[in-house]
Design goal:
- The protein is of the alpha+beta class and 473 residues long.
- It has 3 domains: 168 residues, no CATH class; 129 residues, Pathogenesis-related Protein p14a (3-Layer(aba) Sandwich); 135 residues, Pathogenesis-related Protein p14a.
- Helix content is 35%, strand content 16%.
- It is built from 16 helices and 13 strands.
- The two termini are 45 Å apart.
Length: 473
């Protein structure tokens, strides 16, 4: 969904000291290689072709030939480039799609310079641009040729400089392996967050998992909440200390939220949020900052990651929202429905209880009569376009509850918010505001009702939220 999160372009991080290891590996592989009938040991690209075959970059033909002089198509070179780096994970190809679709999906996602002619021979100039793009360089053909020559990734074909490189000539299969071999020597491993899909999981669930997998791991959800941005939240609130939301669209997981220690951000990493903020810059480069100071956003390949911070506890990470980037960028926030507003109310209630449970406080009970008072106040603020606890007649939340016939109370409190995108967004606005936070963590309160109402065309805000806390005598 369109939400103001920024996108970033990052260069690759080069791991130094591994080039010699790769060179040795290429030489060692050569001795064990099965020769192609048309690539004798005396062939100028023999070592590179054998390296490519034995490292899964490419292969020969069923008749035992390699056809080193045959031209390479753009799709073929793109696939070879990606296969040279097995750490780069691709989407699975659907039966109705062309074999090269996942490679082009990656190229489009990273804004690599590819054409709309996958089956046409690729030129040396186009290869130069792709190799430069792999390093995070967006260059014209001449600039890319100059760049790869300067980096030692290629040599001229007919002489020095751009002209001697022959950028308009088609690339042969032998030349393609030579380009990739040199690239691999210089850049042994792809480490850019733009290229590597993070293996992040919450209670074992990952983005892209099927709903069957979710239910296998977590069981049936307590609720399935509608939204106004194309997904359905599976709500797991049986244990508020492990409160989890799983966003589902098209039978697949496209979103995850949790404010507990069951997050794991790498296969070898410890679970939890304790040291997460201090380590993320090393994992995914610098954070990108949305407008609010208590949110940090990272955009590794294919994902948006929002860290929600608690500024009153030294900006520690309180919760994490993980979203599939393709889904997010292809959906917009539509007008709310009664179902999505009701879901928002219940999620705010759950998030408040999860916040309390994490701090050892008792959970609140839902009170529908109090929720009706909260809903009426949100609607009144939207319709009369004001944003205050007391209405224009000077009536407080306590007055409004009494007027609605709610029994006498020992204590009451109210939080209001407006303009936030959804329940999670609004919750962290309150959490980071001291007065609102005190209401959410007040031990005396035992009940809560929440009201969410969309604004009108004349309202200053799109959505209005009210929390009314209540403790009967």
């Amino acid at each position: 969904m369109k939400n103001g999160w920024k996108r970033g372009i990052r260069g690759l991080v080069i791991l130094a000291g591994l080039g010699a290891a790769w060179l040795a590996a290429g030489s060692a592989v050569q001795a064990a290689a099965v020769d192609f009938k048309d690539v004798p040991a005396s062939h100028w690209a023999y070592d590179k072709i054998m390296w490519a075959k034995n490292n899964g970059v490419t292969d020969g033909y069923p008749d035992g030939t390699f056809r080193p002089a045959q031209s390479v198509t753009e799709a073929e070179f793109l696939s070879m480039l990606v296969r040279a780096y097995p750490e780069i994970k691709l989407d699975k190809v659907n039966e109705q799609e062309a074999w090269y679709t996942p490679y082009y999906n990656l190229a489009f996602e990273l804004a690599w310079p590819v054409s709309d002619k996958p089956n046409e021979p690729i030129t040396r100039g186009s290869v130069a641009r792709l190799m430069a793009a792999f390093y995070g360089q967006s260059l014209s053909e001449d600039e890319a040729v100059q760049w790869i020559l300067a980096q030692g990734l290629a040599q001229g074909k007919n002489g020095a400089g751009v002209e001697g490189f022959a950028p308009k000539d088609a690339v042969s299969r032998a030349e393609a392996q030579t380009f990739l071999y040199r690239l691999k020597l210089t850049l042994p491993k792809a480490t850019s967050p733009d290229l590597i899909k993070p293996e992040i999981q919450l209670q074992g669930v990952r983005i892209g998992d099927s709903t069957d997998r979710v239910i296998e791991l977590l069981g049936e959800p307590a609720r399935k909440d509608a939204t106004n941005y194309g997904l359905e939240w599976y709500i797991y609130n049986k244990d508020y200390k492990h409160y989890t939301q799983v966003g589902v669209a098209g039978g697949k997981v496209v979103g995850l939220f949790g404010n507990h220690d069951e997050w794991q951000f790498a296969p070898e990493a410890e679970k939890g949020l304790e040291k997460l903020r201090s380590s993320l810059a090393a994992i995914w480069d610098k954070s990108e900052h949305p407008p609010r100071e208590y949110v940090e956003t990272y955009t590794p390949r294919g994902l948006y990651i929002n860290l929600y911070l608690d500024k009153h506890e030294k900006y520690r990470v309180d919760g994490v929202l993980l979203m599939d980037k393709k889904f997010t960028e292809s959906h917009v926030y539509a007008p709310n429905t009664p179902e999505s507003l009701k879901a928002t109310e219940r999620e705010i209630f759950d998030l408040t209880n999860a916040f309390r449970a994490q701090r050892g406080l008792g959970v609140l009970s839902w009170n529908e009569s109090v929720a009706e008072v909260a809903r009426a106040h949100s609607r009144d603020m939207a319709e009369r376009n004001y944003f205050e606890h007391d209405n224009p007649e000077g009536k407080s939340a306590g007055d409004r509850m009494m007027a609605r016939g709610i029994p006498q109370f020992r204590a009451w409190g109210e939080n209001i918010a407006a303009g936030y995108l959804d329940a999670i967004d609004g919750h962290y606005g309150w959490l980071n505001s001291w007065g609102h936070r005190e209401n959410m963590l007040e031990p005396v309160f035992t009940m809560l009702g929440v009201g969410a109402v969309d604004g009108l065309s004349s309202s200053d805000y799109r959505t209005y939220y009210t929390q009314n806390f209540y403790t009967p005598l």
